[in-house]
Design goal:
- By secondary structure, the protein is of the alpha+beta class.
- It has two helices and four strands.
- The protein has helices spanning 19-29, 46-57; strands at residues 8-12, 36-41, 60-66, 71-76.
- The chain has a four-stranded mixed beta sheet with strand order 1-2-4-3, with helices on one face.
- The longest helix is centred in the middle third of the chain and has 12 residues, at 46-57.
- It starts with 7 loop residues before the first strand and ends with a strand.
Length: 78
């Protein structure tokens, strides 16, 4: 998979839902429209959680990567 460009990173390893979502929401609120947030998680349910979050918040989920022990989520600020 090609590298996805991003403007900011939130490290949310060892946190369970809803904490990774809350950290992402806080970071996105401080970003400009069009900027991309990378969120790194270890919660096995994070893939579905971030899909639902982006649908509800109208931010664009541009990529997700399952890296085994971690997952990466790339969200473009609306």
């Amino acid at each position: 998979m090609n590298e996805v460009g991003f403007d900011q990173v939130v490290e949310a390893q060892n946190l369970l839902c809803p904490l990774p979502i809350l950290k992402a929401k806080k970071a996105l609120s401080a970003m400009d429209s069009g900027q991309v947030l990378k969120v790194i998680t270890t919660d096995p349910k994070a893939m579905g959680d971030f899909q639902a979050f982006c649908t509800q918040s109208k931010n664009e989920l541009i990529a997700q990567r399952d890296m085994g022990d971690t997952s990466e989520h790339y969200i473009k600020r609306r």
